[in-house]
């Protein structure tokens, strides 16, 4: 076990998130009602893009490995079926809701895409990109290593959402608890996509699809869902999918670069 790389990975993952959160919260509390303005999403996109570039460079400097963004899959026949479950869970809703996006004025369409893409890029670069590389260089090789990496990155990914309680217009604690559980299993699915393909391209794609909703002044607020629906459809199904796709007999591609 390389403890230095382990703690370094955690510090960078949480540190870059805290940097993003500190900057955005400072803006939101300094400029009243900014959270309810559509142009905040452009500010958010700019902030997370700059931090994402910084994370990409850190991966190269700390581990000597570049995060792979290429859509090319080397062993396509062996990986094509891993897209079925993510498409059912997140792609169908995207297709069903895309019409509502394009009914908006053009500037709100751009805002909606900027918000979704910003989250997809930042969180996947940080978690499935840097996090996967970092933990891969932390744990000794074993047949369970891919599952351990998926668990660690997903846990760090989901727990960051508790800081949403600090936002000026904050969701309820129950809504955030549901968001944390949902994003933990979401992260597990995206770990499968990144480790089975060797690129974070598809994790970014599905993440952005999952986050794309029509912009409204309260679009950042989380609604409370049915716990049974959440735990079974968006919990149990992704868990079984992850256990199957990252089982010891499967070939894993941590990074193609």
UniProtKB/TrEMBL annotation:
GO terms for molecular function: endopeptidase activity. Residues 108-213 form the CAAX prenyl protease 2/Lysostaphin resistance protein A-like domain. InterPro entries: Rce1/LyrA-like_dom (IPR003675). The chain crosses the membrane at residues 12-30, 42-59, 80-99, 105-125, 146-169, 181-205, 226-244. The keyword Ribosomal protein does not apply. The keyword Nucleotide-binding does not apply. One of its GO terms (biological process) is CAAX-box protein maturation. It comes from the Bacteria. Keywords: Membrane, Transmembrane, Transmembrane helix. Belongs to the UPF0177 family. This is CAAX prenyl protease 2/Lysostaphin resistance protein A-like domain-containing protein. It comes from Enterococcus ureilyticus.
